[in-house]
Design brief:
Layout lengths: L11 E2 L1 H11 L14 H8 L2 E2 L3 H11 L5 H10 L3 E5 L5 E5 L3 H8 L17 H15 L4 E2 H12 L6 E5 L2 E4 L5 H6 L4 E6 L2 E5 L8 H16 L4 H8 L3 H13 L3 E6 L3 E6 L13 E4 L4 H5 L3 H4 L3 H5 L11 E4 L2 E11 L2 E8 L5 H17 L3 E6 L9
Parallel strand pairs: 1-10, 15-16
Antiparallel strand pairs: 2-4, 3-4, 5-9, 6-7, 8-9, 10-11, 12-13, 13-14, 14-15
């Protein structure tokens, strides 16, 4: 495909070009050698946050985009240098984000409508109660690192017994009422994770002042489209877990301001890129890559049917949801699943290709497993065969 400069007729973008550019901009393109990523913060910024519900998977996502980065580098950036933060990011899920970008993220995320309240009527909180809890969380965590139980005591003491009512279902138990806005406190900049105390997570106040919502949201849309464009407002809404009508309004506002422009995206139709950002590679991606659980590329790339073609859609997705399986990429699309098991320094990797790999593909896979082991600071062991482990919850 030959790309065209901005013109009256929208640029036409093929799946091949879009996929190759996304991989290159996240430093996952097998041929990408220019401008290597040297820091965990830059790697996380390139993917717009590393999903960190499973921290080892986030460490691997970061390392795979970097130049010689290891899990120790990620941990040092997170807990010592504090150039990364662990907090509630897109979709209300736990992510690693660059500390320098936290004002932008909190400014943007705090503008996202909350949607329908999923809790029963007797468990819900009034708007005033929500604000009281967020303020109490911010106050309690200022200059402190508290476990969830310690934070709960502080929140109830600052707000009232109603905040501690055990009315919220959570992991085969009942949580206090205030816990339903824990992620919202993160989105408001009142809370991030602090280092574990033993096996218990702790939280602290990062002292973050969110940027003004409209400007922060515009900046986030621009970063999203640079990383994952072309994309529709519905794609953005899905990535952010936001209402589709609201996302459509935000894209319309950015289009009216001339910040984004429309292109024609194969198999999708009208879609958007940052204004003037219409250069796409003409050559398809070649090579083999391994991506861990919940990798940002696998979650955000749309249309999902093109990234997970044919049998990959059934094998590598959980009911259409990406991220629940680590995936094998061959020539830029999902072509299998894999699993990592650690025992001491032994990094045992089992890879299940959906189609047999040729000798060159097997050699490339061996190199990928060696790289995974280097990032995880262990000794590699590869088995090519069925993966019997089910999807991650």
């Amino acid at each position: 495909m030959t790309t065209r400069s901005r013109a009256t007729t929208p640029t036409t973008v093929s799946w091949t070009g879009a996929n190759a550019r996304r991989l290159a901009r996240q430093h996952l393109h097998p041929d990408a050698t220019a401008s290597p990523i040297a820091t965990p913060g830059a790697a996380v910024a390139s993917m717009l946050g590393a999903h960190a519900q499973v921290l080892s998977a986030a460490e691997l996502s970061v390392g795979l985009r970097g130049d010689g980065l290891t899990r120790t580098d990620v941990r040092t950036a997170l807990w010592t240098d504090r150039t990364l933060v662990k907090t509630f990011g897109p979709r209300g899920t736990v992510h690693l984000l660059p500390a320098a970008d936290l004002p932008l993220w909190t400014g943007a995320l705090s503008t996202v409508p909350t949607g329908t309240n999923p809790f029963s009527q007797d468990a819900r909180m009034t708007p005033d109660q929500v604000e009281a809890v967020v303020s109490a969380v911010a106050e309690a965590l200022t200059g402190a690192e508290l476990t969830i139980d310690e934070l709960s005591e502080e929140v109830v003491a600052r707000t009232g017994p109603w905040a501690g009512d055990l009315v919220m279902p959570g992991f085969q138990t009942m949580w206090p009422r205030w816990r339903q806005v824990l992620h919202l406190a993160g989105h408001r900049g009142a809370l991030v994770y602090a280092p574990n105390r033993g096996r218990k997570a702790t939280y602290t106040n990062p002292g973050c002042t969110p940027l003004a919502g409209p400007g922060a949201l515009a900046a986030l849309i621009e970063r999203y489209l640079r990383a994952y464009g072309p994309a529709t407002s519905a794609h953005f809404a899905r990535w952010l877990a936001a209402p589709k009508p609201w996302a459509a309004e935000q894209f319309a506002a950015q289009a009216a301001a001339g910040a984004i422009e429309e292109v024609t995206f194969a198999d999708v139709g009208p879609a958007w890129v940052v204004a003037g950002d219409t250069d796409f590679p003409a050559s398809p991606v070649r090579g083999v890559r391994l991506l861990p659980y919940f990798d940002a590329f696998a979650i955000a790339s749309q249309p999902r049917e093109r990234l997970f073609p044919g049998a990959a859609y059934e094998r590598a997705l959980a009911g259409g949801q990406a991220g629940n399986f680590p995936v094998l990429l061959v020539d830029g699309t999902v072509a299998g699943v894999w699993h990592l098991r650690r025992s001491g320094r032994r990094i045992a990797v089992t890879v299940e290709p959906l189609e047999p790999l040729p000798p060159a593909g097997l050699r490339a896979l061996e190199e990928q497993v060696e790289r995974v082991a280097a990032i995880m600071e262990g000794t590699p062991e590869l088995t090519v065969g069925p993966v019997t482990v089910g999807p991650h919850a």
